[in-house]
Structure formats: structure tokens, C-alpha cells
Amino acid sequence: MVMSRDQNAGRSHSMKTDSSSFERVEQIKYLGTNLKDQNSIQEEIKNRLKSGDACCHSVQNLLSSSLLSKNTKLKIYRNIILPVVLYGCETWSLTLRSERRMTAFENRVLRKIFGSMRAKVTRGLRKLRNEELNDMNSAPNIIRVIKSRRIGWAGHVASMGERRGVYRVFVWK
Fold first, then answer.
1. Crossing angle for the helix pair 96-114 and 142-158, to the nearest 10 degrees
2. Is the separation of the CB atoms in 44 and 33 below 8 Å?
């Protein structure tokens, strides 16, 4: 697969060896990540969020259970749902739109965990605001987790030797 932002790049390329030939494809799935020839990460982020929604739906009974503490529900979120969403996030280049989508996903899950709150004036139930969710959740938000993982990955690549291809791309040699 030829990856480029240019739509005409690699149209006529095919690879042949002595005994076999490989056809040109527009996308492949490698280690659970969809790679496309347009080199856009937005589709991958969308797919990760869909997988996170499916994972969240599979543990929905646990997140809405009154038998589990909020602390246990947060551990379920951090240890089961979040790794599904953040798989491969070290290489993502986030746009403001994708950051908002990730934050909206996180807030949706946290609302399931924390439930609703009683309004002081009307004594009815109301939805928690984003600021209240952030105050109730002691862990760093999803965007900070992504950025810290990216910094960790950059440090790992920086410590590689000059012979490694990833390092050469990192320092642009």
C-alpha cells in the first residue's frame, strides 16, 4: 500500500517478486488498526470511538449498577473501556474536532458512572455538567492521557539508535 496525501500517488504501482505479485490496495487492517492510502487518522479515531461505544455497551449493566461503588466503576472505565479507545493513540495527530469527540465520549461514559444529581431549587434530577464531571473524576482527562502517551512514545523513539528507521523518521534523516 502506498500512503500519501496525493490521491494519484501509487496508482500504477504493483509489487512483483520472483514467484508472486502483490496487488495495490486502498486500505489494510494491521494489528487492529485500519491503515488507508490517504494517510488520514480521522477514520481510525472514529473507529476507535465506535469500538469504545461497543465496549461501554457490553459493560453497561456494571456501569449503571447501584451495587458497585463509583470507584469500581471508574476502574472498569480506565482498565476496560479506555484501552480499547486509546489503542495506537501515540501516533495520532489530534485536531480540535477529534479532541472534542474524544471528550464527548469520555463525558458520556462518566455520566453513566456518576448518574444524575439533584437540583437544589427544584429538587428534581438533572444532568451533570462537564465541569462537575471533571471535578468528580480525579484521573486526568482523555486528552491529557493521549498527550502524555505521545510524549512517552517520543521519548522511547528518541532513545533508539540511529540505525532504526523509526528514529530516522523522527529526526527526519
1. 130
2. yes
| 29/68 same-domain check | no
Beta-bridge partners for 126: 117
- Identify whether residues 27 and 49 lie together within a single domain: no
Looking at the structure, do residues 108 and 26 belong to the same domain, yes or no?
no
User: Does residue 148 share a domain with residue 136?
Assistant: yes
Domain count, the chain: 2
List the beta bridge partners of residue 42: none
Q: Which domain holds residue 84?
A: 41-170
In what helix (H) or strand (E) does residue 30 lie, and over which residues does it extend? Answer: strand 27-30
Which residue, chain included where needed, has cell 465506535?
50
Tens-place pLDDT, residues 99-139: 999 999 999 999 888 876 665 656 677 777 788 877 888 78
State residue 49's pLDDT score: 95
Q: How do residues 136-160 score in pLDDT, each as one tens digit?
A: 887 889 999 999 999 998 898 888 8
8 Å CB contact between 90 and 150:
yes
Q: Say if residue 75 is in the same domain as residue 144.
A: yes
C-alpha cell at 168: 530516522
Same domain, 51 and 33: no
59: number of Cβ within 10 Å: 17
